[in-house]
# Entry
Amino acid sequence: MPGCIKKRILLTTFLLIFTGLLLTAQNNAIQKYGKANVFAGLEVGSKGVKLSLIELLNKETDDADFKILKDTTINTDFISFTQPTYQATLNAMNILYDVAAKQYDIPAVNIFTAISSGVHIQAEKEEKLGWIDQLINSFKYIINEPDRKVTVIDIKEEARLSHLGIIPEARRYKTFLIDIGSGNTKGGYFPYSDTKTFKLFELTWGTKSVANATEKIMGNDKTTENYTNQLSRVLDGAEDKEIVYAVNLSGAFPKSDNIAFSGGIAWAVANLIAPELNENSVIPVSYEEVMEFSEKLAKNPGLYSDQQIVKNLAPNTADPVKTAKDVKQVNKVFDQRSLLSGTGLMLKIMRQFDGVFERKQFFLVKNGSVGWISAFVNLNAGK
Amino acid sequence: MRDTKSLLLLLVSLLLVVVSFILIWTWGYSYYKNNSNTISDIKPAAADTALMVNRLKDSLQKEFNATLQELDLQLSTTVSQTDSLKTELDTKLAEFYRLRNEIAAILKNRNTGNNFSEARQKISELQTRVADLKDKNQDVEKENKKLDEVLTQLGNTEKANGKNAKNGIAVKSSTAEKSSPVYSVFTASDLRLAAIMNAGEKETETNVAEKTDQLEGSFTVVNFNSQFTNAEMMVVVLGPDGRVLKNSSWDSGTFNTPEGKKVYSSKFNFSYTMGEAKRLAFTLKTAAIASGNYTMEVYHNGLLIGKMVKTLT
# Structure
């Protein structure tokens, strides 16, 4: 047996034992969700496998008609399409399925499995669609459920499901949802008064791709000042060449009163810009507010540290401990430059909707990451 | 030679006499003409008294309108700036409106027999009221200035004594000093916050916290000063624990005030025409309503323009 295969087996075994120990340790405090209205969504994404435990609610308020009880991810990097990442993904699927079925006591019929559009697109691009089929078949074999349905979602369906999962029914037909991802931006809206027809909106720019393009043209001057200068150059190009046309083509302006942003950058900016609304899953913002945030962030990033934010928190608004924890998490995921890139891209898109005579209401969605899987669960649970 | 000289003198004398005669005749004629004009003017006036009455009325109307314009302008400023002297001002305003209506009624009636001297008298009374209101307005401004001075003094004393131990407060105070708006152009009145109980299909008002299903609030806003076409109002409803009551994440947000950032319960964006009394209403469906005091605050441009407290047992 070659040495590299031995190493892989050892690594996989270690990963399995470690994850098993971690989950066993957590088990003591685990709550059982054997209730009829609690469902699980198991999603294979570009970065890893995600388990979301969702409680479906009665639609009495304008808020979402579901509640996220748990949201766990195991990073496996499936889209590398290598044997170890394939094995890690399969293992992660099995582990998280067991967590849902055995530890949280969710019946198999209430566990829904899907492969995200990001995985499907990448597999198609690299002619690796067979890997997806093999993953699905292996998973069904291991859990001993040959009839289990594992749905491969395409980009339009994912955007449609995100809209259904994030935007409440009362605002469904007047809201344009834009999901700014790391490598691209997608979203859309329902142009008619039904959820069957969905108008897709796509951009080839995302938070990370903007940051990468900026870094590439910085040269030897690595200062923040130069970064912001080059960033505006990149964003101006993106706006002139793509954003303006994509927004016009979408035809969203006359049909949407609200423009909602989801994705990592929306979650990050929402937490930093309005810590007072820490409990809110969505926060309303104006173009000017985001612009001011971006300017302050470029000049003094220290203003958005957890200590500083909690210090300036208005009394009787949000829990300081939870706020500090969330802000810390934001600063762990996004550094100043990636925040500036994502915010800059968001501002360029916002600007297309910020007319002199007619201005749209902008929202930043915090729980967008579980949007499509929750809608997928919601729709399938209703069948 | 002598005969020629005397003939020339005679001719000049004659010329002078003729010129003098012409001048005397011209003066005489113009004097006669003026007299005849006065007579012809008086005659038609005497013949058509209705026209005279109307002209007199028109002049009164103009005077009345001018007074009204001046008063409306003054009233707008006064309404927005009065506070402690409001009751006294209200009395004066009531007197003004009564007089204005009386004058309008007189001027409406175009009968020749009307006593326009009464209208003139009332207009002069109206003008006196305007002067009174002006004085009152000046008093209000003086009071405001005094209050500002007292507040500045207090602020300075606090700074000197170092009483503002909390940095956050100090930052907010400096922000407040920088913010330019001092007055809001809108005034809020008739604030109402009701606890509603849903008994079947029927909604009834209650004062019992346990029975309350939702809170309903309403208020009227007026702006006499600025030509706003669009306006934005924020409503903050604070529960007994001091926390802001919210409907859903989509309905609540934050806004800036001189005291710092605040969370609003409801926001209104509406089109507006100057002088219009706009009634705005909202509903708050919150999970649990505890007994105690519920405070409703109305803000425009970050400034508090109305406040009321509702107690639920």
In short: Chain B touches chain A through 22 residues (CB under 8 Å). Chain B has three domains: 49-143, 144-178, 186-312. The two ends of chain B are 134 Å apart (CA to CA).
